[in-house]
Design a protein that fits this description.
By secondary structure, the protein is mainly α. It has 14 helices and eight strands.
């Protein structure tokens, strides 16, 4: 090629390169600078975010989460009935209460308020917790050997998870309020907790897992195990042992933890790599395994390994960030995994978990009625309805607000504030 053709070719190449550079610069300016000038609720995640690889532009902060918890707490308090249980579901656009109820989720809402009180011990919240406790006390009975179980109104059978969540509510409320309670009230609450724990210990099957149901006539457990109740019951026992002095439960806890891991994780994932059984066990076992791993009991390090492996599974296999329904439950587990990764100085995992938490919780916060991050669907239906503000949708474009969705998300927010957004 002679010099004239070479110069001509070089000139065309320079023009092409300049055009490519110019287009690239415009794209970078558009995606990297423009979002900074938009209100947060209009911002989208930048296309270069790869949260599962630990690459993300953080959007959440303590102020946003504090506000979310504040209005979420008010939603739960506003939806407590005079009897002490809760409005189960409220369609905030049609202003109608949905028919139906769920005893386990009702007990879970009581536990959620106990956790909120533990985080922020406001008198109004404490009163609400004790009101819910009084409801479940009125609707429970005690066997001849002292085991306490719930007889929820208008249901044919008891659910073991209801008892487990009642125990969790007592454990976490007593941890927070014990010193301020009168001696008489403290003794009454401890006695009720004793009864719930005794029932849980006796409700296991021969494999070390928990029967799903019990007869309301005499408390006799029956039915196959369910991953939800296996996890809830295990979490109640380990928290009782670790924080409330029930050290005699240790052999039962370790036996149940191994049985649960074997059945609900190892065997379930062999059968189906994206098992619904493991999904049901996920956050409960992650919270329970975290408590075991940090208990300083000998030979329990593997439970920390399980928490980290399960978080990887939830993110990479179950793909929680792609789910279209509310996945606040996932963050109850992933946040514990993040804290363990930090403690173990596993920087790569900690960065990955932090990005997934930030990305996922920002999305879910945009589904909260009254949030400054509220999505387009919520903004198109402005409301001052006190029964709705602070409630959280189960889908970005579905109006019903269920009490357990709020409970799980507020717990995730509390954990995020505790471990990440300090």
């Amino acid at each position: 090629m002679d010099n004239r053709k070479l110069r001509k070719f070089s000139g065309k190449r320079s023009v092409i390169l300049c055009l490519i550079a110019g287009v690239t610069l415009v794209v970078l300016v558009w995606f990297l600078l423009l979002p900074s000038f938009l209100p947060q609720r209009f911002q989208l995640h930048r296309p270069f975010d790869l949260p599962t690889l630990g690459i993300c532009s953080k959007r959440l902060n303590r102020e946003i989460l504090d506000q979310s918890l504040k209005i979420g707490t008010q939603f739960m308090l506003q939806n407590q009935k005079p009897d002490g249980n809760f409005n189960y579901e409220y369609d905030w656009i049609q202003k109608k209460y949905t028919k139906g109820d769920n005893q386990v989720r009702q007990a879970g809402a009581m536990w959620g308020l106990a956790l909120i009180y533990q985080d922020q011990p406001e008198p109004e919240t404490g009163i609400a917790v004790e009101k819910a406790m009084a409801f479940f006390e009125r609707h429970s009975t005690v066997t001849s050997d002292g085991a306490r179980y719930v007889i929820y109104p208008d249901v044919p059978a008891g659910a073991t998870g209801t008892v487990a969540l009642c125990a969790l509510a007592y454990i976490d409320y007593l941890r927070a309020a014990g010193a301020s309670l009168s001696e008489g009230k403290l003794q009454r609450y401890r006695k009720r907790l004793d009864g719930f724990l005794k029932f849980l210990v006796g409700a296991r099957n021969e494999d070390g897992l928990w029967h799903e149901y019990y007869r309301t006539s005499d408390g006799q457990p029956y039915g196959d195990p369910t991953p939800y109740f296996d996890g809830e019951s295990l979490l109640a026992l380990i928290k009782a042992a670790k924080y409330m002095g029930y050290s005699d439960l240790k052999p039962v806890i370790l036996d149940a933890a191994e049985a649960g891991y074997r059945h609900n994780i190892h065997e379930a994932l062999q059968e189906d790599p994206d098992s619904n059984i493991t999904k049901g066990y996920y956050q409960w076992s992650s919270m329970a395994f975290y408590e075991i791993a940090t208990s300083r009991w000998p030979d329990t390090e593997q439970y920390g390994d399980y928490v980290l492996e399960l978080a990887d599974w939830m993110i990479d296999v179950h793909k929680t960030l792609r789910r279209t329904r509310n996945t606040a439950y996932a963050y109850e587990g992933i946040i514990h995994a993040y804290e363990l990764a930090v403690q173990r100085q596993e920087t790569r995992r900690a960065r990955k978990f932090a990005c997934v938490i930030d990305t996922g919780l920002e999305k879910l916060t945009s589904w909260q009625v009254g949030s400054p991050l509220a999505n387009r669907f919520i903004r198109e239906h402005p409301t001052d309805d006190l029964m709705a503000i602070g409630g959280i949708q189960n889908h970005r474009r579905e109006a019903p607000l269920r009490i357990d969705v709020a409970q799980h998300q507020m717990h995730a927010v509390i954990l995020a504030r505790l471990y990440i957004y300090k």
